Amino acid sequence: MSRSHELVTLLHREKNLVPDIFSILTVSTASEAIKCYVLKFIENLLNLDKELDDDDTAVKSILLPNLEALICSLHCLFQHDNASKRKSHKYLGGNEVRIFKLLSKYIKDPLQARTFIDILLPFLAKRVEDSDACPQALEVIQDMIPTLGIESTAKILNAVSPLLVTVSPDVRFCICDLLDTLAKVDSSVLSVAKLIRELNSTSKMEVDGLDDDAIINTYERIDVQFFITIGEEHTSVILSQCVFDMSSEELVLRQSAYSIVLSFIEFCVLMLGQENGRQYESGEMGTFDGNRWTRACILRLINKCLLKHIGDAMSQGNSVKKEWIDILRDMVLKLPDDANFSSFKALCSDDAEIDFFYNIVHLQKHRRARALLRFKNIISKTKLPEGIVKNVFAPLFFSMLLDLKDGKDEHVRAACMEALASVCVHMEWKSYYALLSRCFREMRKNANKQKVLVRLVCAVLDQFHFSQPVSSQAGEEFLVGVSADNMNEIRSCLHKTLLPKIQKLMTSDTDSINVNISLAAVKILKLLPGNIMDTQLPTVTNKICNSLKSRSENIRDEARTALAACLKELGLEYLQYVVKVLRATLKRGYELHVLGYTLYFILSKYLMNHSGGSLDYCLEDLISVVENDILGEVAEEKEVEKIASKMKETKKCKSFESLKLIAQNITFKSHALKLLTPVKAHLQKHLTPKVKTKLESMLDHIAAGIELNPSVEQTDLFTFIYGLLEDGIKEENVLAENSLISGSEKDQANKKTIPKARVIITRSVGSHLITVFALALLHNRVKNAKLDKNDIWLLSMLDPFIKPLGNCLSSQYENILSLSLRCLSLLVRLPLPSLASLGDKIKVTLLDIAQSSINSSSPLMQSCLKLLTVLLQSTKITLSSDQLHLLIQFPIFDDLEKNTSFVALSLLKAIVKRKLVVHEIYDLMTRVAELMVTSQVESIRKKCSQILLQFLLDYRLSRKRLEEHLSTLLANLRYEHSSGRETVLEMLCAIVMKFPKSIIDEHSLTFFIHLVFCLVNDRDTKVRSMIGATIKLLTGRISSHSLNSILDYVLPLYSFEQHKEKPQLCGAAAQVLGLLIEVMRGNFQRHVDPILVVVGWILHSAVDVGLHQEQDCSDEVTLPFWNDAYYSLVMLEKLLYQFRDLCFKRELEGIWEEISKLLLHPHLWLCNRSNRLLALYFTTVTEVIRENAENSFGTFVLLKPAKIFMIVISLCCQLKAQVTDDDVVNNLLTQNIAFAISSLPSSMQQNGSVEPHKLWSALEQHEQAQLLKAFQSLDPGKGRGIFLALISGMYGQNDNEQFKDPQNFLISYLLKRMGKLSLEMGAIQMKIVFNIFKTLSLQLSPDNCHIYAFQMLLPVYKVSEGFAGKVVSDDLKQLAQEVRESIRNTLGIQTFVQIYQEIRKSLKAKRDKRKHEEKVMAVVNPMRNAKRKLRIAAKHCANKKRKIMTMKMARWMH
After folding, report:
1. Tens of pLDDT along 751-771?
2. 3-class secondary structure for 1354-1366?
3. Among 768, 929, 762, 756, which Cα is nearest to 849's?
4. How far apart (Å, rounded) are the C-alpha atoms in residues 1326 and 1379?
5. N or C: which terminal CB in the chain sees fewer CB atoms within 10 Å?
6. Is 637 in contact with 591 (CB distance < 8 Å)?
């Protein structure tokens, strides 16, 4: 009926028919189908009226009387209806918008118009996805603005501003039209409408492109004063546009918008009274041009326009994040406390290495990881506002976590998880649950991120802080900060939502085990009531244990890891349960091997930090598994090679380590003997050698575990050991008596008798193993204890052990005898009363063993020698001189060179310390001196040197014998191996330090001559360094007379004649003079002038050779005179550090000129050393000018315009040839170039030599040739032309007006050339150049920096934007960003954006020109174009092969 013109008149028959139809929209119980029909009825009426002529009023007569009812019904439908009852009408769609568009022309009443607009404005806030409906809605609102008037301006602006953040260009143009219409009604919107129109300007040259220049110019007009003149809603529109531009890929747009946001923050600071220290009360703060600004308005804008969008921007690229993070840091530092930012000031720091905001988006991964850990540490100590943390930092960390590549950057990934987990501590349940839900959503979207996200779920569950029960008086449990209803909701979410999701993940992959999924399931079960835990836990553990049956090693490893992680989460009280499940599951065949290995794995992962006694309750179960794996049938299978090689679990028995862990975690006093039960049981049986070895290993691991057991008390342990020793001695005595009675030859052969032949034979029975175990425990405990001679309790505990140890000296077992001697070595140092009665027996036993044994490396002999050494150092039990004489003749000292023993040398040192004077000692010292040099073992060489030094100091030696020893040492300075020469030099240093000064003076010249010749001839760097240290020590120890003799010897060697005839001696003399300068200091003053003359000659010779003789730089050693010149420069540097006044003396002017020329020398060492001296000169100049501002640059010889001009060019040439990766050298080069360039303008202005011909005339003829050569070397293509243009004054004619100044032209040329070098050459050059630019940006004034900014930013732009033409590392990209920010801070954002945009346009024009030329060439010269394409294809093919080879090499390396 509503579609037909003939039938529509029937609607008049019933007066309330149409209103009743409209009122259906207000009925909440009406179905959606009925409401759709009503809306269709309305749309048909409006379309019918549109089709009819204006004269036909049939439809109007129906609509106009019922217009108010229709609008109210629509308002009720879309504003007040319950969303849950209108599932299909959550927001306006295209059909509804068409109805409103048709209806708008009937509304003339302002009240109806406001009601009508109230329906449409929320539609814009819904962010509707229908791209066609949004522009239509904006058009409807635009049509209604004349009717509305100015009352709805604020509503419209508030609705439109969020759209400007995300909408497409078409919608943005509609918004601009709407604002223009609104400006006609409300003049306050005029400026904002004009700005928004200009900020969305399109380019006339590019389709769908923006006019960047117009946008940048528009942004420049917005400042703090502009925000003062507009209101809150207007500011919201401007900020929304800035937010949109800050997500742009173009840096110039981001920086321009960023500058406006910074201006807004300054405006907020101004309004909040932060700058003037004023604190306003809540309410109005100021009225400006009719705009009333309150604290609430500003905080509302900050939250709505900045903080909200900072969180959204955290999921975008790093380039976008960087600006937003800078904005957040700016707000934290500047905004007052009531903006919730003061808590975050702890994240800021003046140190860039520490500042969180600077490092969190840093390109270097370790800096990001460090920032995350800093955030975690701070949030764990400080309560941070949940809103900002949840909306800003949580999305940032989550985005960083998902952006990381799989298998890489684990340290950053772990730091991200820790930071996110630390955030959860401060979250309420809804935010906490939302984060968990997001993790599961991301798992569905990114299946490859499942493992990482499950790890994150585990980390979040670890921070579950809603279940901390406290008991009330009624005995009921409540949760801290959580009501009972909320707790029920939390448990319901955990049980019915999260747990099923985890279980679904567990069952999704039946072939493998995910450790973190199992761990997450256990973590959730721990948070649920106990009955649910008991029901669901077996499902998890059984699945894991069944996976251990798999033949796949990877699956078994994952299952073991999962089981250990789950046990760690459950607690040690579940260990017995887990062991029982394992034993019930793994029962036969290879599964038993898996059982033993798995038990070790679990214990090793879980028992690292637990206290003793934690395994008492399940000790029997654990011992049973371990015993079966070591001594059962399973152990026999491991000995079969074919079985052992099949699985990882069969290759090695891990139950020994399990036994150690068990012994480490039991209660020692009550359970120690239980550990020995399986060993004692097997000792009663017949022992095979294999079983005996296993029992010994078991006892060793039990002893190691007891040593680490925290429950062990000294008294309990000594009592335990004493009992075992007594039992062992009694048992051995019984066996000995039985053997004597039986008289069996077989038993007699197994014994060993000490008194006569002392031939020791180890018996095969294992009854003594427990005694060995007890002795080992005693030795380790006494060795690790703090033996205090005044500790009466300790002495009383140790004294009873003397008697059993004495009995052990008569034992027939070698290992018992050896351990007894080792224990006595520790106890004889203490004042134990029982030692006196045992002294003779100890000495007789030791001498008997030492005399009869030939092999000094046997354990028994080593123990014997150690105890002898200790006895020689003690006073209670000591050896007589005859015994010492007898000892020195034993076999261990006869073959000292071939069978060298460190213990034997220690004994010899103790004998020498006793000053035993026999002829054998003197002969031994000669052999020790030889061994000190020839041995290849460092510890032996050091011990020999100690013995020889002790001998030389303590024994009376004739002059002849002393000279023989010293001559031998000096002769060994030429030993073939450097290790021997190093030991000799160390010995000489000790002699110089400890011998009487008279002896050193007597032999000083001899020492010195030998050392100098070694310095000349030795090629080992370390040895040469030690020779220099020895000479320095020697010259500092001798008298002035001897020192003058050395000077008289050295000074003639450092002369021009020696320089020509024997350059090596001259270089060595320079080194020695440098050492003497350090020793003599101010006393060297009288020798300075003649030395400087020689230095000038030598440097001049080196310059002549380097500049006039063509040499191959790859063969630097063949260059004449470089050695003399290098060490002369080293000596000169020491002179200048000692005598700082020399730096600007007239005598040194010629030397400084030669040094500046050496910057171009082919030898790299000379270049680097010249750089060091130049840096010293520049540093001294800076200090002098700082102390006395009257000094000008022109007063210094190297800072005159001509000289500094040549130095700058030379340094740039050195930069081109620089190939070293030494950071110190590169930093010096960076500092020198930056200082030279920054001082060039001042030097030229102060000297008045700004004309090119004056610069040229100030140079000598050879310097002119040198400068021309430097220009050609720096720029082979255009260097000569630039040089001629500069000296002729024909520069800058086609450039800007600022480059007509010669200094600007020269500096710009140098910076441009350095920029090209950084792109053409390697990473080292790029790093140096960028550091130079960064330093210059800090040293230059804003005006000067503006002149050279284009040249400095050009290579930075190419690297940052990916136009470098080669692969650039992340470190260099980060450095480029730092340079860019440094230049931006110096210039200001607006100037920086203009220059950056100029660079962008310039490069784009070049690219367009090149593409155009390529297209023209393809038509004009197709053959040439085809060859060009073939070259490009070949280049790409070579790059592809190189990348493939690099990937293969990386795989091979790993």
Report:
1. 433 333 333 333 435 678 899
2. HHHHHHHCCCCCC
3. 756
4. 12
5. C
6. no
In terms of phi and psi (left: phi > 0; alpha: psi -120 to 50; beta: otherwise), the region of 1251 is beta
Give the max Cα distance, the chain. Answer: 147
Task: Tell me the two tokens of residue 441.
Answer: 């959503």
Output DSSP code: residue 304: I
Percent helix, strand, coil in the chain, to 5, is: 75, 0, 25
Instruction: State the alpha helices, DSSP H only, in 1055-1115.
Output: 1056-1061, 1063-1080, 1088-1108
> Coil, strand, or helix at residue 530?
helix
DSSP 232-288: HHHHHHHHHHHHHHHTSS-HHHHHHHHHHHHHHHHHHHHHTTTTTT--PPSSEEEEE
**Alpha carbons 1000 and 529: distance in angstroms, whole number:** 85
At 507, list the tokens.
Answer: 């069952």
Do 1030 and 989 contact (CB within 8 A), yes or no? yes
Residue 45 has pLDDT above 50, yes or no: yes
Distance CA 243, CA 1345 (A): 30
- 1139 φ, ψ (degrees, to nearest 5): -120, 85
Rounded alpha-carbon distances, angstroms, from residue 268 to 233, 280, 284, 301: 15, 13, 14, 10
Helix, coil or strand: residue 877: coil
- In this structure, what token pair is assigned to residue 585? 């599951």
Question: Would the pTM of this model clear 0.90, i.e. be above it?
Answer: no
Checking 783-789 for CB contacts under 8 A at 24+ apart, the result is: 783/826, 784/707, 785/714, 787/826, 787/829, 787/830, 789/830, 789/831
Q: Where are the beta strands (DSSP E) in 1287-1406?
A: none
- The DSSP bridge partners found for residue 202 are 210
pLDDT in tens, 1026-1042: 999 999 999 998 998 99
Backbone angles phi, psi at 55, to 5 degrees: -75, -25
Q: How many CA atoms lie within 13 A of 1156 on its CB side?
A: 27
The rounded radius of gyration (Å) of the Cα atoms in the chain is: 45
Are 302 and 339 in contact by the 8 Å Cβ rule? The answer is yes
Residue 1353 vs residues 1276, 1321, 1367, 1377: alpha-carbon distances, Å:
24, 18, 19, 10
1322 pLDDT higher than 80: yes
User: Rounded to 5 degrees, what are φ and ψ at 1059?
Assistant: -60, -35
Strand partners, 469: 479
Mapping DSSP to helix (H, G, I), strand (E, B) and coil, where does residue 479 land? strand
Helix axes 619-631, 655-664, angle to 10 degrees: 150
CA-to-CA distance for 160 and 166, rounded, in angstroms?
A: 11
Average pLDDT, the chain: 82
What are the backbone angles phi and psi of residue 233, rounded to the nearest 5°? -65, -40
User: Helix 251-271 and helix 318-334: axis angle, to 10°?
Assistant: 10
How far, in Å, CA of 19 to CA of 69, rounded? Answer: 7
H/E element, 519 = helix 515-527
Is 293 strand, coil or helix? strand
Q: Which long-range contacts (CB under 8 A, 24 or more apart) does 577-586 make?
A: 577/541, 578/541, 578/602, 579/618, 579/621, 579/622, 579/625, 580/621, 581/538, 581/541, 581/542, 581/545, 582/545, 582/548, 583/621, 583/625, 585/542, 585/545, 585/546, 585/548, 585/549, 586/545, 586/548, 586/549
Q: To the nearest 10°, report the CA torsion of 546, 550, 552, 557.
A: 30
- Rounded to 5 degrees, what are φ and ψ at 479? -110, 135
DSSP state of 766: -
Amino acid at 300: R
Specify the 3-state DSSP secondary structure of 470. strand
In percent, how much of the chain has pLDDT > 70?
Answer: 84
Half-sphere exposure of 1031 (CA within 13 A, CB side): 28
**Angstrom distance (rounded) from CA 1344 to CA 1336:** 10
